[in-house]
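>> received
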Amino acid sequence: MLDIEEIDELLDKIKDIVLEANRRGDLEQLLEKIGLQEYAQSPNQYDSYKNGKIVVIGDSEIKPNVLLAVAKEMGINKDRFELCLDYESAQKYQYKKLQYCPSYRVVMFGPVPHSSKGKLDSSSAITEMESNDGYPRVIRLNSNNSMKITKTNFKEAISQLIAENYI
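>> returned
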């Protein structure tokens, strides 16, 4: 039997797992796996078109044509992408246009400024999108424990979305 401190520690770990699954878009599968499928989909949950736009935002040393070539190699049409690959453009990007717009499916983030037009009351535009209804799925592109757009993590993210039949 666990004591109260061990239960608190366990609950913290469970909370972290649930939050991570929600961030990755895997919450529905996790809830079904543990017998809580009634929480899997809110009746107010917003969805977008499976063939909608894939937005990539963040400062990148990878050229747009390289990312689009990777996407083409994986069978995704380049016309589905909206690229915003520099710090200044990411700061001025109109994030609000993505909310409740079903033609946007996924937003992949590399490094972006914390202060931008889309952050509203949140700490960043990413957090704003992750914690409010009506935004497309958010994917953080990381490399070596920091946000960075690389050819590898971009390809991995696309592969995962295809494997999930999300795009």
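>> The first strand starts at residue 53 and ends at 57.
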